[in-house]
Amino acid sequence: MKRFRNPVLPGCHPDPSICRVGDDFYLVTSTFEWFPGLPIHHSRDLVHWRPIGHVLDRPEQLPLDGVPASGGLYAPTLRHHDGTFYLVCTLVDGPEWSGHFVMTADDPSGPWSEAVRLDGDGIDPSLFFDDDGRAWCTGTRPTGRYDGHTEIWLREFDPASLSLVGEEHVIWDGALKGAIWSEGSHLYRIGGRYYLLTAEGGTALDHAVVIARADRVTGPYEGNPRNPVLTHRDLGSGRPIVGTGHADLVETPAGEWWMVLLAMRPHHGDRCALGRETFLAPVTWEDGWPVTGGRVEESLPVPSLPEHPWPAVPACDQFDGPELGPSWTMLRTPRERWWSLTDRPGHLRLRLRPDGLADIANPSFVGRRQQHPDFAAFTGLDFTAADDEEAGLALMQNNDFHIVLTATERGLRLAKREQGVMTVLAEAPAVPGVVGLGFEARGRWYQASYSPRPGHWTPLGDPVDGDFLTSQVAGGFTGVLVGLYATSNGRPSANHADFAWFEYTPL
């Protein structure tokens, strides 16, 4: 029997939500302060996924300006009904506005509408379209009864006006006594009953998936006596997969049930630089309750679906297209076009601007997710620096925790920013013309290198302990992104940096 490897979406792809339309599956994940936001992936076998677009890909749809690290877009839910795709989500810590919103599209690849604000407190909204033609929205909010205690509320949703109507019902507040962060709720109607799937325990080692059911959508809901239906918290730290939770259910055309969920792959203890990734687990039903076996495995038998891999994507981006590929992302909403693939064909040109990675801004940085514990990333940089200007490669966790390997006026520099303090780790003489820059990761260790001429790579400094790049140290909910960076460090500049290629390869 063929098997697949978890995670099915490696790298920072947390809070997965899935829906099926015919033989096609579509999935969305959280992106926090990153733009474009809320990537949509498409699959026909639940194992092989391809990116087909982003829900948020135009600045006018929703403002991410000034959103702090790990603020922004939390826990989207994707649903399809009567030919329309619906996306509900929460904008957290937005300086202009915060709260729930809904967006719609005829095609999941877009274009998506601008955001329409929804009533309701808290986070993690979800939509449910019932068989009787009515639709409902759930969400999570703190109660104040004790630290971390939350409740799930329910209101009717009007698809015509894209608004919540009618009275509110509080339907759940956790499966365990003293439960914290009952969140990420989804409603389903299965076999004539209503099922409420939620997470609880927080998104670290104590994360878990629980379920309850009712005869009416408004409740009362009874918890599964075998809750949690999936967790790894009893396994402790140091396991290959930890923090399993925040799940969504989907049924295949053949009647199989599967669960997508987030989990983490630590490189030691509970430390994880990859962030929360999307995993897949089988579900069966016994006595009217879903059964997962209680564990998510690294290797599992494939679903009973025709295998459908997508064409491979080249490991090296030659920047020979008119736009950046779907794997590239940037911080917050871009209000000006500071990157170009046409000014110098075959190169990505980044215009130097005063903003840097330490600023809560939209710096000249484009990155892609670190998706493997061991990887190598390389680029070719053509750049002449002046004053305090720099350009090169960056390993980005957030504004206070990152590593940069850059060319400056004085030469090459390897530096790290930890807890808001910048430290130079190693330097090398300037290299005229095009210089190769690279990072090679082995678990928690990142080795920088440079190439003064093709085929000759020299380590720069010692391997850097990247433990401080994990969310367990740096805080927040994201993983590391590796990418291309240019800044004039607070000064106006007319300069630019040209990147001839970028290659990312798992090791």
Automatic annotation (TrEMBL):
Please list which residues make up the signal peptide.
Answer: none
Determine if Hydrolase is one of this entry's keywords: yes
Q: What's the short name of a Pfam family annotated to this entry?
A: Glyco_hydro_43
What is a single molecular function from GO for this protein?
Answer: hydrolase activity
Among CDD domains, the record links this protein to:
GH43_XynB-like
Which InterPro entries does this entry report, sorted A to Z? ConA-like_dom_sf, GH43_C2, Glyco_hydro_43, Glyco_hydro_beta-prop_sf, Glycosyl_Hydrlase_43
Q: Identify the residues that the record assigns to the Beta-xylosidase C-terminal Concanavalin A-like domain, covering every copy.
A: 316-505
What stretch or stretches form a coiled coil here? none
Q: Which UniProt keywords apply?
A: Glycosidase, Hydrolase
Q: Please report which protein family the annotation says this sequence is part of.
A: Belongs to the glycosyl hydrolase 43 family.
Q: What is this protein called?
A: Glycoside hydrolase family 43 protein
